[in-house]
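README, section 4: Worked example with a bound small molecule

Sections 1 through 3 covered apo chains. Here we extend the same pipeline to holo records, where the ligand is supplied as SMILES alongside the sequence. The molecule in this example is flavin mononucleotide. Nothing else about the input changes; the structure line simply encodes the ligand pose together with the chain.
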Amino acid sequence: MNISKIAHTRYTTKKYDPSKKIPQELMNQLIDLLHFCPSSINSQPFHFIVVTSEEGKKRVGASMDEDVFIYNKSKILDASATVVICSKTEMTEDHIRKVLDQEEKDGRIIGAEKKKKTLDLYMGYVNAHLHDTKDINCWMEKQCYIALGALLLGAASLHIDATPIEGFNRKILDRDLELREQGYTSLLLVPLGYHANDDYNFTLPKSRLPKDQIFKFL
Ligand SMILES: Cc1cc2nc3c(=O)[nH]c(=O)nc-3n(C[C@H](O)[C@H](O)[C@H](O)COP(=O)(O)O)c2cc1C
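The generated complex, written as structure tokens:
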């Protein structure tokens, strides 16, 4: 695998071929990638909704009916699948205890003393974001963007096209999927599939600021 080649060839798909579907085995790999994506203190403050049914696509697409977002709607309707990346709306000690119980079950934490120490460490981070920097929601959302990055690179490495989307009405989607009642809010949509032959963005050259403006090598 050549990561540089993937970076040059992956691109934001603007038009999907609705007749092309992602094989389930590849979808499973992407789901695995999301399941195992890293997060600060292993907090996993995300929830992923994988939409493949026509009815589900229509419901997600309805969050793009306003003029400002309408250009995104056909991507959802025509793509093979869409992942709705959601963030938790609250970070609680109960959730952290759940993570610790899982770490113990998976054999990463052995013994009550180690578990207590880890709880104190993890809650130290959570309390700092809650009470010192007061950026707990932003912190949780950052973890979701790590998942976005993994998904985009992972999809491209499997020759699957993707579109990262922030352009939709979160309030409408949250209401329709009853996300806030479950402690989540939608953050990003990622349609996945295969581009249409007339996707204008497929043939446009990539454009980035010059390397010397983006990097410094010390
Ligand atoms: C967080 C994020 C949100 C984005 N939202 C949208 C969007 O709502 N609609 C869209 O067509 N493209 C969206 N994009 C795509 C960017 O415009 C695109 O990544 C950028 O122009 C670079 O082009 P490339 O992805 O083809 O390399 C988004 C990208 C990111 C990373």
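What to look for in the output: The CA atoms of residues 103 and 109 lie 6 Å apart. The first strand starts at residue 46 and ends at 51.

Section 5 describes how to batch many such records.
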